[in-house]
């Protein structure tokens, strides 16, 4: 899938073009940015769009005109974009690394490049250390500090890719292996199978009698940038998305044991192996063996656990957080599943910073077989997202009422907002309007630089208003981007419990907030959870699976998830 590579190239081109500040370049900058966004969120591989419909199909994508469709075609045909190469020569800036730093967007990178010649992490580090940044216009001591912290954070999270970027690629590799006809089976293992929020590398297992041919095929697929090690049973490649991928070809009789072993995690494996030893067996990635070293005839992963008198547990639980002990007692809970989800309680439309109309969002939700979804646009204080005021919400809701009538119950749109919790904990919309809404999310989007006590009190005050149904992305963290704001989550959970406020598990791949461990903490309180996609365009509604994965990693069952409720039960819960 080349969507992300081209999107990243377009974003870089937009940034490089913005260095040249003429009116025509400004127009071009916007065009590249728009097309990059479309590509980044497109669920279908761009090469398939092109293969099926040619350059016309490319031009049919939102924000892609004739010129940019030509650039996409050029890349798909030649693997290069000439204009990109020319710009890169002129402005040798390592945007990829620099944009990983919190507080550093393309605009600031361009400014730093112009003023100080900052072009990569090393020159940025030097600029920070020599305190040259604080005196630049538009920067200052504080932003220098933010950049220093951002560099520190980057070095601790380095090299891990979002599950949301890695999983679709892993799935497409598995699909290609299966379609090749050379493998009998292929599966994703490792942290990707455990739905960990970020992954260090991909691990894929396959059964085949033709190891050498499979590896030849694998190393030649178009996701592969270079080969790191190639053998008949194990090959490691570097993928063009910027991640390495291991493929292991396994004998059929070892597949179950290999899947168990390579799913991990390591700590979980060590515990399971110790249990095997205690029972007189030996367990490794090739199988389970008796005292005489004879392999026992088990093929599936389930039968490995069964032989050890352990209850099977889903991969998401295998983090050595108590699941091994629970499994020995046969007390593994039945976790929430994607198919249990009936609705989505966090979505945006183009009235604010979304890309699609409410009609398009409704169509997308119906295509996913949702029974309901809430439209929750931003509120007036959030200017960068063009948040709406009371009148605008009232106008928009009239339109939603009409649409609901026209839909005749095929899907129900709940009227809501993602309302800003202001700095002092007050609410960003009138009480009278909030009372009319079906579903009010409260969220912090500003003044992150408070201390823990201030931030905790701010949120508690908002929850105590009794007007908030759901606390959206409760900690504010952005994976590989921004740390959570300082917060006493326990105190917030107490306030949520006493006000019946639902805690969100935001399914957007770079949020996943609450995180798995915070969910475990929260589930000790009498609170319910909502898994919301925070969709800013129709394709984002498919992010639900990352939220469900995170909920499963936090051991949540269906009964704790409000958007697994039928509509009438949910409405009863919301009307108080
Ligand atoms: P990652 O790649 O950092 O996101 O995390 P994983 O869990 O995918 O780790 P990876 O790719 O290094 O290894 C895949 C699995 O293989 C891991 O989850 C458990 C198993 N494994 C790797 N090294 C060891 C080891 O030294 N001992 C045991 N028991 N298992 C291991
Ligand atoms: Ca891995
Ligand atoms: Ca690996």
Question: Can you put this structure into words, describing what you see?
Answer:
- This protein has helices at 3-19, 23-41, 46-59, 66-78, 82-90, 95-98, 106-116, 121-129, 141-157, 163-179, 190-193, 211-220, 255-263, 266-278, 301-307, 323-328, 358-367, 390-407, 431-436, 452-464, 489-499, 516-522, 544-553, 567-574, and strands at residues 161-162, 185-189, 198-199, 202-207, 224-230, 234-239, 243-250, 282-284, 287-289, 343-344, 372-378, 412-420, 439-443, 470-471, 502-506, 529-532.
- It is of the alpha/beta class.
- It folds into four domains: 3-137, DNA polymerase beta, N-terminal domain-like (DNA polymerase, domain 1, Orthogonal Bundle), CATH 1.10.150; 161-250, Beta Polymerase, domain 2 (2-Layer Sandwich); 259-328, Beta Polymerase, domain 3 (2-Layer Sandwich); 338-574, Alpha-Beta Barrel (TIM Barrel), CATH 3.20.20.140.
- α13 crosses α15 and α20 (452-464) packs parallel to α21 (489-499).
- It is globular and about 75 Å long.
- The protein starts with a helix and ends with a helix.
- The mean pLDDT is 94.
- 2'-deoxyguanosine-5'-triphosphate is lined by residues 190-191, 196, 199-201, 203, 261-262, 264-266, 269-270.
